[in-house]
Amino acid sequence: MTASRPDLRTPTYAKLICASLIWASCWSAPVQAQPMGLPSMGSASAAELSPSLERTLGDAIMEQGRRDPDYIADPDVSQYLTNMGRGLAAHSPITVQQPITVFGVRDPQVNAFALPGGYVGINSGLVVQAQSESELASVLAHEIGHVAQRHIARGMTQRSQSSGVMMAALAAALLAALSGSGDLAMGVAAFGQAAAVDRQLGFSRQAEQEADRAGFEMMRKAGYDPRGMVRMFKQLANASRLNEGMGGGDYTSTHPLSIQRMADIENRVSEMPAAHPKGSDSFWYIRAKLRVMQARDGQSQRNAVEKLQLDASQAAGVEQSAAWYGLAYAALQKKDTAQAEQALRNAQKNGQGSPEVAGLAVSLALAQGDNAQALALAQAASDRWPDSQGIALARVESLQKTGQDEAAVQFLQQRIKQWPDVPRLYQLQAQSQERLGQKVAARRTMASYYDMTGALATAVEQLQQARNMTKDFYVQSELDVQIRTLKERLKADRELLERFKS
């Protein structure tokens, strides 16, 4: 049913960026110029890289990037970050022309980056180092400020040698990936290339200050404490000094902190009345999970567990519960279900509850082979937290494990109406449809999945397979229309990318 996907043992993001920059340099002379002093957005820039083309670029990059082992596909992380991003974007002083999608990257470096098309990547290290949700929101708001001002789109089309090389290399890789006939490693390298875009662009002081001010307004109107931006600035400046001479990767290398920028935000904060910022419990649970996720080797894993144990013994309330949750998650990753069960009970003490904790309880029951208990827990959690994608996916997994694929399909149909832009829901629905013998429907659903993830060529293949499986004239006619529409989009995308290849 699904197209085969090779197991890509790609390097970390830092190595991807280095490799992609070397690759880009093969196209032309070394980078010399940097676009500076970007003014307010004008119609000429919009004509050079329209929002439609920008989204095409972003979709193509993400289709490859989702295959990278450092891409975090965890539904709790993705939903939390994207909800925060969209909540901030809703209060942007400038209309954001792209839907904001925020994804996590498994990397302890304190960093974040914006891609074309409204995609924003957040390193796990940034979340872990943030001491409050407002601090995290300040960096995300700044990135959305760049998106709103279209700094990425404009920088990529500057009439300079560096941007020309970058766009040519990026377009060539994406064309290869789009056709499905190129070197797949080159296509994946494009994600590293894109992650390095803001490093190459070298945003001007004016552009950085514009993003700061837009981010400040977003934070204030969305209910976060703008003082979090000041605290994060100071933390980043300190981290930059400590890491000086140790190589790139930190946020200040791509978004230099000037005295002017810090003074501007401090002055704005000083004029504000005392704030009563909002904060969600999910921040602490997501932070604890990412602390474990980003630990790659034995020593870093031990360090993560020790920090969580310290927080579990010294913190209180939700922060203590989140620390126990992190310890339970770490134990479950090591398949130590007994230790995970004990830590999870500690996380639930004093009535503490969250969709993250409830979802982990379902995962633990599944790991223990108690599928019926997992389903009961998932159903109860789904009733309590109907807006949690993680809980919904846990319920689907429990239904599938107990052989209730028909119920899973019905539940997924409801969730797809609730979250029409979550590709994983379509993939799971196709799996259950396949087991139920609904071969044509399964392939049509998988076509939707591939369409949403930017793999248009694979989506066409799925629809063609579905057409060959049915004799129903009306279904064939519907499929013919879908195939023709996708082929036209695929052709248009190729033509758009060809513009930047030369």
Automatic annotation (TrEMBL):
Pfam families associated with the record: Peptidase_M48 (PF01435), TPR_19 (PF14559)
Names of required cofactors: Zn(2+)
PANTHER family the UniProt entry points to: METALLOENDOPEPTIDASE OMA1, METALLOENDOPEPTIDASE OMA1, MITOCHONDRIAL
Protein species of origin: Pollutimonas bauzanensis
Name under which the protein is recorded: Putative Zn-dependent protease, contains TPR repeats
Superkingdom of source: Bacteria
Signal peptide (UniProt feature, chain positions): 1-33
Record keywords: Hydrolase, Metal-binding, Metalloprotease, Protease, Signal, Zinc
UniProt GO MF annotations: metal ion binding; metalloendopeptidase activity
Every Peptidase M48 domain range: 79-268
Biological processes annotated in GO: proteolysis involved in protein catabolic process
UniProt xrefs under InterPro entries: Mito/Outer_Membr_Metalloprot (IPR051156), Peptidase_M48 (IPR001915), TPR-like_helical_dom_sf (IPR011990)
A GO cellular component annotation in the UniProt record: membrane
Keyword presence, Membrane: no
